[in-house]
Amino acid sequence: MKTDIQIAQEAVMLPIKEVAKAYGIEEDDLELYGKYKTKLTDELWQQVKDRPDGKLVLVTAINPTPAGEGKTTTSIGLGDAMTRLGKKTLLALREPSLGPCFGIKGGAAGGGYAQVVPMEDLNLHFTGDFHAITSANNLLAALLDNHIQQGNALQIDTRQILWKRCLDMNDRVLRNIVVGLGNKGDGVVREDHFVITVASEIMAILCLADDMKNLKERLGKIIVAYNYAGEPVTAAQLNAVGAMAALLKDAIKPNMIQTLEHTGAMVHGGPFANIAHGCNSVRATKTALKLADVVITEAGFGADLGAEKFMDIKCRMANLKPDAVVLVATVRALKYNGGVPKAELSAENLEALKKGIVNLEKHIENIQKFGVPVVVTLNSFVSDTEAEYEFIRNFCEERGCEFALSEVWAKGGEGGEALAKKVLNTLESKESHYQPLYPDDMSLKDKVKTIASEIYGADGVTYVPAAAKALAKIEEMGFGGLPVCMAKTQYSLSDDQTKLGRPTGFSINVRDAYVSAGAGFVVVLTGAIMTMPGLPKKPAADGIDVTDDGVITGLF
Length: 556
Description:
Elements: H1 4-10, H2 16-21, E1 30-32, E2 38-40, H3 42-48, E3 55-61, H4 71-84, E4 89-93, H5 98-101, E5 110-111, E6 114-117, H6 119-123, H7 129-149, E7 156-161, E8 165-167, E9 177-179, E10 190-192, E11 194-196, H8 201-208, H9 212-221, E12 223-227, E13 232-234, H10 241-248, E14 255-259, E15 264-267, H11 282-291, E16 294-298, H12 303-318, E17 324-329, H13 331-337, H14 350-369, E18 374-379, H15 386-397, E19 402-406, H16 408-411, H17 417-429, H18 444-456, E20 460-463, H19 465-476, E21 484-487, E22 507-516, E23 521-526, E24 545-546, E25 552-553
Parallel strand pairs: 3-16, 3-17, 4-15, 4-16, 8-11, 17-18, 18-19, 20-22, 21-23
Antiparallel strand pairs: 1-2, 2-14, 5-6, 6-14, 7-12, 9-10, 12-13, 14-15, 22-23, 24-25
Helix pairs in contact: 4-17, 7-8, 7-10, 9-10, 13-14, 14-15
């Protein structure tokens, strides 16, 4: 059996300008990065912005398990299937973070015969967007420390610095560090921290900004610290905005590549969904909607994280209205939720399936709360049985959901046609009544309580004193009308990753909160979420190499 990287490297790609032409994009509107990658110009948006929008389909999933779900694979295969059925289709996906490629995750370009290419480029440096975000983030950190060193005219309290440096690499030793050691000229000694680039507020800002003007406005609102009087100090006050924007000038432009079957894919931005809002850029999504009949996008991790944030943050801010949601599951993942160890998932086990399917049930209910029609799809594995499929099909149809089997990993677009037909039927026959879960004017604590009870199924929310105080201060500063971005484990509906299935009788425990004023949301931290991952005992980097003739191996 061929590996994903072998399949990707054997693919015959079209020049990206030919792929773009199929969507009416002329070569003058491309900023080419070699033959197979391009950015789209600002002028293109001006040409298309008044066109009507195509249909918007979100792909999400049940809570991730070690058994795998295949959300990106499903998105790509569905896009190819739609193209095969004659629909002008574009994908709008996130860029993968570099760090996890060398950790436990491998690449993030789909899998099997449902991939976007060039795969190695996408998973490594791509068009440099994440490097630009890293540089802009660390420029702001450097300007902040320099301001303190050069007299501290803004009276910044070094015990209340919020802005952290970033790096797009899993490096646990950088989580908590001390800077400024050495001579007097080496800076003020203080504790500092690193986050992974995808957790930087600049990543969120880039993905939510409409244009350069809006990007600069958002950058200026970033709160980097508090002064001795307890007042916020912003990036604008440090005169950092212009230089940061210069570093992000090209990064804000959407990227375009292709699938193995030459469907266009706009891959841009990549915030994680467990610590950020988990969606690709607004600019890429909006541009795609002007160029295609159907746009397929995804949101990170399970629907309790990515889909909730897509609906409550991205769609609210960008005035997007999703037309349908595809909810991805696997028989194996549902059995895992039913208590079956990973080593035993290949055996038919209807009892475990009945226990574990409650996780899928909760996600179906959650999506329906936003008023958007749901199609459930199973990413098929050779160990699945007809009896297991039949049980899940009946379960979904009893709950008013369309159901289809997806075989895109093995068959590409052809294996997604059954799913594509169900999605198209849903788009044509069921009306979306999208609405966010909560209103803007609800208090922050009530917003948290609404998400915890309605989406997670919690009985309540508890706050450590510092978190309650932080939320009160955020409201006092005038940010109470912002949506909340819950930072929570992806592995459970609760904030305890060991609680599988559909846990009950639990509370969500909030340990901290802070405002991302530039991004436009309040981050609420629950459980033990890490914003800088570490590497495992045997990192994926161990198996990655380059042959003498320059071919990358082991990326998957």
